[in-house]
């Protein structure tokens, strides 16, 4: 399934869900947000957690969650190149 900008879907396998897609996505699973860049033919190019992790009541009680958790995936842009700041940061680290 090819997602359009601002379209949302749910899937158990993030890589499989993004297989035919290209662009930048917000993916959520288990209370954590991720910025995902996908490129056609490469699936996931970048996966970066961001923001605070949401704590669920079950996790506070120490209850294990049964079964696989699905991903909620929203396409936010057709662009699939990493931002200029990220490229610059990785170049400085390698210098």
Q: Which terms would index this structure?
A:
95 residues, alpha+beta, 3 helices
**Structural Rg:** 15 Å
Structural class: alpha+beta
- Which series of helices and strands comes N to C? EHEEEHEH
Taking the alpha carbons of the first and last residues, their distance comes to: 41 Å
Helical content stands at 10-25%
Strand line-up across the major sheet: 1-5-2-3-4
Individual helix count: 3
Number of strands: 5
How many discrete structural domains? 1
Range of strand content: 35-45%
Mean pLDDT, all residues: 80
Shape: globular
Low-confidence stretches: 84-95
The largest sheet, given as strand count, sense and whether it forms a barrel, is: 5 strands, antiparallel
Outline of this structure?
This protein is of the alpha+beta class and 95 residues long.
Describe this structure in words.
This protein has 95 residues and is α+β, with helices and mostly antiparallel strands. The chain has one domain. 20% of the residues lie in helices and 36% in strands. The protein contains 3 helices and 5 strands. It has helices spanning 14-17, 57-60, 84-94; strands at residues 8-11, 23-29, 32-39, 43-50, 71-77. A 5-stranded antiparallel β-sheet has the order 1-5-2-3-4. Strand 3 and strand 4 form a beta hairpin. The longest helix has 11 residues, at 84-94.
